[in-house]
Amino acid sequence: MRALVWHGTQDIRCDTVPDPKIEDDRDAIIKVTACAICGSDLHLYDHFMPGMEKGDVMGHEFMGEVVETGKGVGGSLRKGERVVIPFTIICGQCDQCKRGFFSVCERSNRNKHLAEKAFGHTTAGLFGYTHLTGGYQGGQAEYVRVPFADKTHIKVPEGLSDEQVLFLGDIFPTGWQAAVQADIQPTDTVAIWGAGPVGQMTIRSAILLGAKQVVCIDSVPERLEMARAGGAITIDNAQESVVERLNELTSGKGPEKCIDAVGMEAHSPRALEQAYDRVKQAVMLESDRANVLREMIYVCRPAGTLSIPGVYGGLVDKMPMGALMNKGLTVRTGQTHVNRWTDDLVKRIADGQIDPSFVITHRAGLEQGPEMYKTFRDKKDNCIKVVLRP
Amino acid sequence: MSESTSPRDRSCPRAQMPLPNYLGADSRRRPDPGTRVLAQGLGWFSIGLGLTELAYGGAIARWLGMPRAAPVIHAYGVRELLQGAGILGSSDPTPWISARIAGDALDIATVLSGLEDPNPRKHNVLRALGALIGVTAVDVICAQSLAKAPLEPSQKVRQDYRRRSGFRQRAEVMRGAARDFTPPPDVIGPEAMRPWRSAKA
Question: Which of A251, A292, B35, B65 is geometrically suited to a Cys-Cys bond with B145, CB 3.0 to 4.6 A?
């Protein structure tokens, strides 16, 4: 089968690789009908996340049709069913899964020892996202083996297109969880850093959940335009001071809720700060850039909440812990507990409340994947989200 | 795959490997502010170093214990001035920063010869080498950062995303449409830790 394969930094190729096979009774094989390139794939593309090996198949946003199931899947999935696969692999049986904290499933990461070294304890296995998370083949391919398939799936009702439901596997529940974690009240101003696909979903989630004012910060004009379409007031941080503008919008008090939808590859408009983080990264004294975190901590209203869906992988420097502690800020973060939200979100899509396909700007065949990675990363042609069809 | 037809082997055409980004100039390159400042700083550093090498090449050579290297240092001074002018004067300094790295290699190779016997000033040679290695590291960081900088979208392409709300009605009308959703307490914290609904004495 064809698949997008990692060969090194900024080197993705469409290769022919062996077809996946059933390895465990709880496996299923999915024929992929649509997949997407995620912003967090760029952390692998640029090799910011450790743990990738040459030959790894990329991709954790995908959906398709069940073509084969193991004996242990039982009646949970049948051949021919249309499913979206969440990017987190869940066993459904461990303590964390039973509590609904699916992104920290205790059993699905088959390389637990690596995760434990990096993070202290294991988190869930992920599709196509380094050997730290299990080294599972990703979904930017024609076929995928889904472990624990009896639990790791989201069924798609008839009448909804692939593009309407594809993002149930990652970015839509990610934006939704980011907004839910922020505990939005009707009087709140919610500030969201990042107008990429997750930021766009977060904006719409915050609007649906009733925020009084949603403000989005970015510097890419087309992304800011899409953010405004979703109901956000926008701040171009290349043109104006974020802190000043947010204070202006909130009578000097700061937003009650701040959401980081950027993560570890943040770009600071402050030259010295950016140079500092870049140099420290280059000499490996720091692995992640924390510009957004620092700014959020500084500008957030005291007793406010920081919600962090943005992906971080390692160590950051110069964290204003004094401001965080003395302002009494609450921090909620984590990878998305996808299956916790998807029943509700499927209904909202089916009811017509929201159509997540608004975010797709580029469509291509799988063989154009390497080129599309570059287009997505460089934001060429006003690219915001790429969907690939095998 | 026992129950499905195995797809034919359709090999993908091998992706062409692009030329290194750090060798070519691209006016669309859009480095972040920190990288721009770093490149400019290196440009002015080149100018300063170039003038110093031209004016004091002989003294530098004697300090290194390599008096015969004076004409070489003068030539390197001209090189630094050209590099500095290129960095500061071009819309994309990437190839000029890469040229600095090549120049650093030349400098290091030249100074290394000062470690051969007999040179009573080897300690100065070591100091110079340390400084050169440090500068080379900064040049490499800058070149890598420039090479990875995104390219500005083509001015000819301008998509209209103004209508991409994702909602069936205007965003203002959809505000609060999901108020039926109750955030779970284990996600938003226990009631005792949540804000009071009204001010209490």
Answer: B35
Q: Which residue of A has its CA nearest to B5?
A: A67
Size of interface A-B (CB pairs under 8 A): 184
CB burial of residue B119 (10 Å; 0-12, 13-18, 19+): middle
How far apart are the C-alpha atoms of B53 and A184, rounded to whole Å? Answer: 62
Q: Is pLDDT above 70 for A267?
A: no
Q: Residues 48-77, chain A: which have Cβ within 8 Å of B?
A: 67-68
On chain A, the residues whose CB falls within 8 A of the CB of B4 are 29, 31, 67-68
3-state helix, strand, coil in chain A (%, to 5): 35, 25, 45
Residue of A nearest to B163 (CA): A229
Q: What span, in angstroms and rounded, lies between the C-alpha atoms of A195 and A82?
A: 30
pLDDT digits (tens, 9 = 90+) for A272-285: 566 556 555 555 65
Q: What are A102's two structure tokens?
A: 């699916």
Instruction: Write down the ipTM of this complex.
Output: 0.88
What topology is assigned to A2-170+336-389 in CATH?
Answer: Quinone Oxidoreductase; Chain A, domain 1 (3.90.180)
Of A186, A207, A273, the CB nearest to B171: A207
Return the domain boundaries, chain B.
32-148
Q: How much of chain B exceeds pLDDT 70, in percent?
A: 83
Distance from CA of A270 to the nearest CA of B (A): 7
Query: Domain segments of chain A: what residues?
Result: 2-170+336-389, 172-333
d(CA A232, CA A191): 9
Q: Which of A368-375's residues contact partners 24+ apart within 8 Å by CB, and which partners?
A: A369/A4, A369/A12, A369/A14, A369/A37, A369/A140, A370/A4, A370/A12, A370/A13, A370/A14, A370/B15, A371/B15, A372/A37, A373/A4, A373/A12, A373/A37, A373/A41, A373/A42, A373/A45, A374/A10
Whole-number pLDDT of residue B14 = 43
Task: Look up the pTM and report it.
Answer: 0.77
B113-148 pLDDT per residue, tens: 999 888 999 999 999 999 999 999 999 999 988 988
Q: Do A142 and B141 touch (CB under 8 A)?
A: no
pLDDT tops 80 at residue B11: no
Q: What is the mean pLDDT of residues A116-122?
A: 91
> How far away is chain B from the Cα of A118, in angstroms, using its nearest Cα?
25
The answer, yes or no, to whether residue A337 has pLDDT greater than 70, is yes
Among A210, A344, A381, the residue with its CB nearest the CB of B176 is A210
Contact A283 B195 (CB under 8 A): no
Of A19, A142, A353, the CB nearest to B177: A353
Q: CA of A132, closest CA in chain B: separation in Å?
A: 25
**The pLDDT of residue A319 is above 80:** yes
A172-333 topology per CATH: Rossmann fold (3.40.50)
Closest residue in B to A46 (Cα) is B148
